[in-house]
Design goal:
By secondary structure, the protein is α/β, with parallel strands linked by helices. Helix content is 38%, strand content 22%. Strands 2-1-4-5-6-7 form a 6-stranded antiparallel β-sheet. A 6-stranded mixed β-sheet has the order 8-12-13-3-14-15, with helices on both faces. α3 crosses α5 and α5 crosses α7.
Length: 386
């Protein structure tokens, strides 16, 4: 049997050139990058995270901050919008990707995507060329925050593997909003509900099945890690009625059970004013394997290490399934890791053979990468190679 190539044997996908126009605090920026790690250091507010956010827009969605487009456009740019252009090279060839809200006439429009200068129907088409994964300080509260953030986290993991997942989620949300409106308007015509509930059952089951599969694959990847590794092994599971049903029954049976449940509990949902059951209510459960402790009860440092370990395992998974390592965006990654874990992280990133953008205020935290990484100092929206 032919073995899949090791990470070091896979050709690296990387951003070789990045152009920004009126994005956050960057009026005009042009940068060239080589494969491998990129370190961005500078004071808080200099624009380090803004640069990572721009790269995160090379994937579907609203970027690592989930910001509205009006908030992304440079404040003094008025209604001109913003534009991001990247040249990406690697395993899938060379491609030019452009995205933003800057219209041809200089006026702002909705976000659009162009690949090799040709407009595309969906931002999902960028996933044919590269996958982008990020870890930010805002995610440090993932285990203690609301379940909605953990669902969004799982869906982002799925999207890096399954480009169709985003469309399924949008279709489900649209159908659920339609059902909630029927409930709010006290509509009693079963035919209206039956049509919407059939769509919710179909798309909802597909969403839950994709989440179950990503967790299964991720758990298998985590189990490959040594028990005494630098980042603790996590036990990962999903909590939800559909996810539970899929663990016990075929997908078609789970879909029918959910559809019947929606019909049965219309009275309850009408009283609540919203749909109370479905993949929009599911949750991600994470435990520290060695300590057998829920992640939310672990120390802040342990939570950071758990989350970092999950993201690194996900990066390995994406590389194996897509055939090319993802691009990693690690914002303030070194600040809360001790020297041993920092060294281990840098070695893992090298073994993954991926382009990684890392930020920090203290350049000394990245000193072990001297000669192996590209270093830039960021100041007031300008970058200087060091």
């Amino acid at each position: 049997m032919t073995q899949p190539p090791s990470p070091s044997q896979r050709e690296q996908t990387y951003v070789s050139r990045l152009l920004l126009t009126d994005f956050r605090n960057y009026q005009n920026l042009a940068l060239d990058f080589a494969p491998g790690p990129v370190v961005l250091t500078g004071e808080n507010g200099a624009g380090k995270t803004n640069l990572l956010e721009a790269i995160s827009f090379l994937s579907p969605g609203r970027g690592l901050r989930r910001a509205a487009h009006d908030d992304v456009a440079r404040t003094t740019a008025g209604q001109s919008g913003f534009a991001i252009h990247a040249r990406v090279e690697g395993a899938f060839g060379e491609v030019d990707i452009g995205t933003g809200t800057l219209g041809e006439g200089g006026e702002a429009s909705g976000r659009r995507v162009r690949i090799n200068s040709a407009p595309v129907r969906s931002a999902d088409e960028m996933l044919e060329w590269l996958r982008v994964i990020w870890l930010t300080p805002a995610m440090d509260a993932l285990f203690t925050g609301p379940a909605a953030e953990r669902r969004r986290f799982v869906d982002r993991l799925v999207l890096a593997i399954d480009p169709a997942h985003g469309r399924r989620a949008l279709d489900y949300e649209k159908a659920m909003r339609g059902r909630n409106k029927l409930l709010a308007d006290n509509v009693r015509d079963d035919r209206w509900f039956e049509a919407i509930e059939a769509q919710m059952a179909e798309t909802g089951t597909a969403i839950a099945a994709a989440r179950v599969e990503i967790v299964r694959l991720l758990c298998a990847m985590v189990e490959r890690l040594p028990t005494d590794g630098p980042f603790p092994k996590a036990v990962i599971a999903l909590e939800g009625t559909l996810e539970t049903a899929l663990g016990e029954r075929a997908a078609v049976e789970a879909e029918e059970i959910y559809r019947a449940s929606l019909a049965e509990y219309r009275y309850r949902d009408r009283a609540a004013g919203r749909t109370l059951e479905g993949p929009h209510r599911s949750d991600l459960l994470v435990r520290h394997q060695l300590k057998d402790m829920p992640a939310e009860l672990c120390s802040t440092g342990e939570q950071k290490a758990l989350l970092t370990g999950i993201m690194l395992s996900h990066a390995r998974l994406v590389a194996e399934l897509s055939g090319a390592p993802p691009i990693l965006l690690l914002d303030e990654i070194a600040a809360h890791l001790d020297a041993g874990r920092r060294a281990a992280l840098f070695q893992i990133l090298e073994d993954l053979n991926c382009q990684t953008f890392m930020t920090g205020t203290d350049a000394s935290l990245f000193s072990s990468l001297e000669g192996r990484a590209q270093f830039f100092t960021v100041s007031a929206g300008t970058l200087t190679r060091t």
